[in-house]
Amino acid sequence: MAETSVEAPGVMPARRVFLSAEWRWLAMLNYQVDPRLLAPHVPRGCELDRFDGATYVSVVGFVFANTRLHGVPIPYHRTFEEVNLRFYVRRAVGGGVRRAVTFLREFVPRRAIALVARWAYNEPYRAVPMSHEWQGAGPGRVPRRAEYRAGPIQFAVETGGETVALAPNSFEAFISEHYWGYTAQRDGGTVEYEVAHPPWRIAAARAATLTGDLESAYGPSFAGPLRSPPHSAWLADGSAVTVFAPNRIA
Question: Which pTM value belongs to this model?
Fold first, then answer.
């Protein structure tokens, strides 16, 4: 994959922290899709990011833990699940490239969380009943099996080996290592925000499933590709994260 210089991961700029937390037990299912499906959703100022010429979406489930908003823990809202559908974009800044994610749908279990995220970032959050289950966490901390249930869908990833570090310039790094997010705004503009965390270790899946009412979750256009077996899947151990306040780009 042709690549220009990418800004160093995990660098925390001198700007206001919006949220700090831990993201744990990240289950990632990845699907190759037609870029024409994603083009209408690319925020202004960005372009689709590709790996070996192909474009991808990922269904990602994980647990927020020890969550603090502006440094303050919110009672009954510190630990909860999130399941999102995301794709990958890039934006040229100066002499480098900011590789980023853009979300198509994000599920959380509490209405207040969804309202705050929509207010602050205009992220496509929806509150639905959610639960998760882990089985057999190994020495690398990643469970042998993780299952997430979010409203009309459920998915599971089962691993067989220990966690490994991400190889530079690999497909796994392309999917997992993103430190920026871009979100289209109602007036047609775009906001940018940075997410700082150390690189994650992953355990490859030996089995992965996604079932349920995909049409009501993601619409008919995305339900079709998501019914196919995933291109790849794995579990990441996760880490502490810092999400910085959004900034509107020119």
Answer: 0.90
